[in-house]
Every structure is written in structure tokens, then in C-alpha cells.
Amino acid sequence: MLNIKEIQTHLDNLTKPPGSLGRLEEVAAKLCFCQQTLKPQTRPRQIVLFAADHGVVEEGVSAWPAEVTELMIDNILSGGAASSVLAKTTQTQLKLVDVGSLCQNKKDSKFYRCVQIAKGTANLAKVPAMTKEQFEKSMQIGKEEAENAVKNGAKILAAGEMGIGNTTAASCLSAILCDVPVENVIGPGAGADDKILSRKIQVVCSAIKRIRTQSNGNLAEDIASVCGFEIAAMAGFYIKAAELKTVMVIDGFISTAAALIAEVLFKGSRDYMIASHCSAEPGHKVLLKKLQLKPLLDWSMRLGEGTGALLVMPLLDSAADVMAKMATFESAGIKR
Ligand SMILES: Cc1cc2ncn([C@H]3O[C@H](COP(=O)(O)O)[C@@H](O)[C@H]3O)c2cc1C
Ligand SMILES: O=C(O)c1cccnc1
């Protein structure tokens, strides 16, 4: 078993003042520890984007109509979305899995799978968004995707999401799992104005109240009642990645809500996580703090779709190369 001390010793033997590559060294050490090697690999790598719709959109909580989910699925698959472009730039294989959008089924391919649990969740403002069975089914699909990706050789995994209305679900999850006031975890999402925002606050507050007054103490059921199919699938994806000791790069607010579900249901999952960035959505830093993850970037991004995770892939490449390719003081003949 390669321990942190041995990894640190190797890092300190490389031709640089100890610690001078700052957080790049932290990333390098994490890759080495998770992969149990001093020559970590960052390719091939895979991002899986999970898509689904949200019944709560009928409450007027998003600046966009639910139909945009379907249009963006098509856009992602035809290469025009930010995630598609960044996946190409960073040479990351992208697959989209529709776990519950309002779309008509399309033909499955290597890059697309349609396995809709339902045509969108139920409206969480009025009733539980999904049953515990649907939650477990969604998680299972995520697990299958992580397992297949690793089986196909992926050394690094990332997940992302597409689902109009999903910041409302993520806000509910954050308030419950971090036990913080609702105002700390609600933001404009994909561009809510003040009117939409105040409706969103009302909806989240009433869903939280319902859970707090009606919960039978089953945490998975509480989570399911405000979750999205894509969020549950990402949680399953992260749990399986951790089980398989595979490094996963976490994206924005919604992905991090799923990451916290993973940590709650499978303790220690966070040890395999790298937080790519801190989103402009206010709840994101609350979730990162709870997970004790320090994001690599703080670039005011607020898109989701896996874009933050994709953006940092070259940083992981650099960390791996530093570890595997730099000369040591001894090999370079430099006396310390
Ligand atoms: C064109 C477009 C592309 C996106 N890609 C990701 N999102 C992001 O915004 C949505 C969540 O925000 P809200 O909860 O406010 O609806 C999700 O689909 C998320 O992936 C997008 C949103 C839009 C409009
Ligand atoms: O940070 C995110 O994941 C995010 C923020 C706003 C809208 N959609 C996603």
C-alpha cells in the first residue's frame, strides 16, 4: 500500500523547492493515492451527463421552460453545447444518459442511452418528487454507468447534469443535508429574476417544511422526496466510482448536491473526489464546506452540464505529468 508519506517524499525529491507547485502537488498526491501509483494516469477519461425533467417547473421556479431540457439534450449530442465543446477540447469521452426527461426515446448509441424512470419527476412543491424505488432505480443506473466506464478503461470519471428546474431540487437537498437556512442555498440558477426567485424560495421552504413535519426518519426517503432522477443517478455514479477507487471530478452546485448524497449513503466517497470549481450559485460553497472539499477554481461559472469538471481536466494532466516525468534531484545531479 502506497501511503501519503511515500508520495510526499517523491514529490519533495523532484527538482523544485518542496511545495513550490502549490495545489498542483495536492492534486498529484490525490491521483497517486487513489490510483496507488507514483505514475498516475488521467486518460482515457469519461464524463457522463445525466438528463431529466422536474415537475416543479410548473410552479414557475426557473427562467426557462421544461422543453429546453430536450433541446439541450439534442444540442449536447450534436456537439453544440458548452459541455460538448469542452469535452472535445479536453479529450474527454462524453456520454449522455436520459434518466427521465420529457423527450421521446431516441436510438441508443455508444454516446447516448435512454432509460427514463418516468417522464419527469412529480412536482415536489405538492407531493414527493419520486418514490424510494424510483430513487434506487436512478442510483442503480448511475452505478452501472460508472462501472461500465471503468470497465472500458476510464482512469478519471466525471458526471454532469441537464434538467431545467434542477437548482430547486439541489437547494432543497442542500438545506436538508447541510441543515442551513433556505436563504443560504438558493440562487438564480439559470437566470431567475426577483419574481421567480421569490417563488423558488416559497417552494423550497414549503418542501422542507413538509419533510420536517412528515418525515418518518428515513433519510433516503427524505432525499428522494425532493430529488431529481439525474441527481440520484449522479449520486449512484459517485458511489460506484468510490467503490472502484476511481478519481472523480465534481462539477457545480447540482453535481455537488449529488456528491453529498453519495457521501451520506456511502461514507468515504469524498476521498475520491476532486472539486473542480466553486459555482456562483450560493449553495455550492455550503455543500463544498460540508464535504470538506476545496475547489480548484473560482471562476464565477454557473452552468452545470459538467463544464467545470471538464475545464480542470488539463490541470489533472499536468499534475500527473509532473509526478511521472520530472527529474529527481538525484537523477539531475543537484545537491540539496
Ligand atoms: C440553455 C441552457 C443550458 C444549460 N445547461 C445547463 N443548464 C443548467 O441550468 C438548469 C438549472 O437551472 P434552473 O434550475 O434555473 O432551471 C439545468 O439544466 C442546469 O444543467 C442550462 C440551462 C439553460 C437554460
Ligand atoms: O453550478 C451549477 O451546477 C449550476 C448553476 C446554475 C445553473 N445550473 C447549474
TrEMBL record:
The superkingdom of the source organism is Bacteria
Keyword annotations for this protein? Answer: Cobalamin biosynthesis, Glycosyltransferase, Transferase
- Span-the-membrane segments of this chain are none
NCBIfam families, A to Z: cobT_DBIPRT, PRK00105.1
> Which InterPro entries would you find in this protein's record?
Nict_dMeBzImd_PRibTrfase, Nict_dMeBzImd_PRibTrfase_bact, Nict_dMeBzImd_PRibTrfase_N, Nict_dMeBzImd_PRibTrfase_sf
Report the catalytic activity: 5,6-dimethylbenzimidazole + nicotinate beta-D-ribonucleotide = alpha-ribazole 5'-phosphate + nicotinate + H(+)
Q: What is its EC number?
A: 2.4.2.21
Enumerate the Gene Ontology biological process terms: cobalamin biosynthetic process
Class of the enzyme per the UniProt entry, highest EC level:
transferase
Q: Which HAMAP family match?
A: CobT
Q: Which gene encodes it?
A: cobT
Record-stated family: Belongs to the CobT family.
> Which terms does the record give in the GO molecular function aspect?
nicotinate-nucleotide-dimethylbenzimidazole phosphoribosyltransferase activity
What is the role of the protein in this entry?
A: Catalyzes the synthesis of alpha-ribazole-5'-phosphate from nicotinate mononucleotide (NAMN) and 5,6-dimethylbenzimidazole (DMB).
Active site as annotated: E305 (proton acceptor)
Q: What is this protein called?
A: Nicotinate-nucleotide--dimethylbenzimidazole phosphoribosyltransferase
Specify the pathway.
Nucleoside biosynthesis; alpha-ribazole biosynthesis; alpha-ribazole from 5,6-dimethylbenzimidazole: step 1/2
